[in-house]
Design goal:
Keywords: Transferase. This is Glycosyltransferase. One of its GO terms (molecular function) is glycosyltransferase activity. It comes from Rufibacter hautae. By secondary structure, the chain is an alpha/beta fold. It has two domains: about 170 residues, Glycogen Phosphorylase B (Rossmann fold, 3-Layer(aba) Sandwich); about 170 residues, Glycogen Phosphorylase B (Rossmann fold, 3-Layer(aba) Sandwich), CATH 3.40.50.2000. The chain contains 13 helices and twelve strands. The longest helix is centred in the first third of the chain and has 20 residues. The N and C termini lie close together (about 10 Å).
């Protein structure tokens, strides 16, 4: 099939915070597919409503249409968005949704969220799930959508996207971390649903003289005061309350022995892919994508636990990783099946199936 245009929401605008979309669509561009950026501004809807430049409208986080403090304004944007979808489908364009989350993590307007979800599950032509379990749930939610197609397409890795040149010793020296400490790392924006306070309490109960918990990332206002209370009287916790620049990611990853992802809810976790891309094991709850990723790359790299994060979970993870570091090679995980170019080709093939 001849190449065609793709209107992506978003395409490039999230590169700084999450380069997933940039990596996906830049690989499509290399294969000759023009990519256009869509946001929820009215002028963008008008610009692309009747445009002949694209055949696929690919959306990732539709909940972003109901942002802001005013429910009335969010409802207006939602109505315009619905009209946009109906119009482009009338002109035979296909709508694709990569379902990153089954529900919004921190939605302000639950009634509008339900309205949006009902519309999307009914109207979308093609659904992409980043894990197999999610695909089964999507099929349940779209039982009345007879025209839809679905696909399970993996999240691409981030290897070779970020700098990764610094050694473990250099990273620890720059961060002021002793060379002999076993380092648990939490990295990224600190939000309530990510359960960083639960991790802090589990670590404080560990009482291990050679361990250190390193937390780095911006703290959201919804958790700031609570986190500060949990961090009191915790000398073996190093807390860096600031946004971590792309060029500094290698410092934190190469300093760490394991990255802990103690989220209360995980449907898909690009963070685990980032950990793997830096050759670091992940310790996370046995939920959704983590189960599948564990089967894909091996239990050495994805270590899962049942229930809540605890001192016992941390202790067991530390013991396993120390033993594995002594008995296995220094070679990182095999994530070749998550190659971005291959993932983009698979996504294009799904587009083509909708247009056939």
């Amino acid at each position: 099939m001849k190449s065609f245009g793709i209107l992506a929401c978003p395409a490039w605008s999230t590169k700084a915070g999450n380069p997933y979309n940039y990596i996906l669509y830049s690989n499509m561009e290399k294969q000759g597919y023009p990519i256009y950026e869509f946001d929820f501004a009215v002028k963008n809807s008008v610009k692309y409503a009747l445009s002949g430049k694209y055949k696929i409208f690919h959306i990732h986080w539709p909940s972003n249409v109901i942002f802001g403090e005013s429910e009335a304004r969010a409802n207006i944007r939602l109505t315009i968005f619905f009209a946009f979808i109906n119009l482009i489908q009338f002109f035979n364009k296909k709508v694709v949704w990569t379902v990153h989350n089954l529900e919004d993590h921190e939605g302000k307007f639950p009634a509008l969220q339900k309205k949006l979800n009902d519309f999307m599950y009914k109207k979308v032509d093609g659904f992409i799930s980043l894990n197999q379990s999610g695909l089964e749930l999507i099929n349940q939610k779209t039982a009345k959508n007879r025209k839809k197609k679905t696909a399970h397409i993996h999240h691409p890795h981030y290897r070779n996207y970020y700098k990764n040149e610094i050694s473990r010793a250099q990273a620890r020296e720059q961060l002021g971390v002793p060379h002999d400490k076993f380092v648990f790392l939490f990295l990224g924006q600190i939000r309530a649903y990510k359960n960083v306070t639960g991790l802090v309490e589990a670590y404080k109960a560990l009482h291990h003289p050679n361990a250190l918990l390193l937390i780095a990332g911006n703290v959201h206002e919804d958790i700031r005061d609570e986190l500060q209370k949990h961090l009191e009287n915790a000398p073996d916790i190093k807390f860096v309350n600031s946004f971590v620049k792309d060029e500094d990611l290698q410092l934190y990853f190469n300093c760490a022995d394991v990255v802990v992802t103690p989220y209360n809810k995980i449907f898909n976790s690009g963070s685990a892919l980032l950990n793997l891309s830096f050759g670091k094991p992940t310790l996370a709850p046995d939920l959704w994508a983590l189960k599948e990723l564990k089967q894909l790359v091996g239990a050495q790299w994805i270590k899962t636990y049942q229930g809540q994060i605890s001192a016992e979970v941390l202790e067991q993870g530390m013991a396993e990783i120390r033993l594995e570091s002594e008995t296995s090679s220094k070679k990182g995980p095999d994530i070749s099946c998550l190659d971005p170019e291959a993932i983009s080709r698979e996504t294009i093939a799904f587009y083509e199936s909708l247009l056939a």
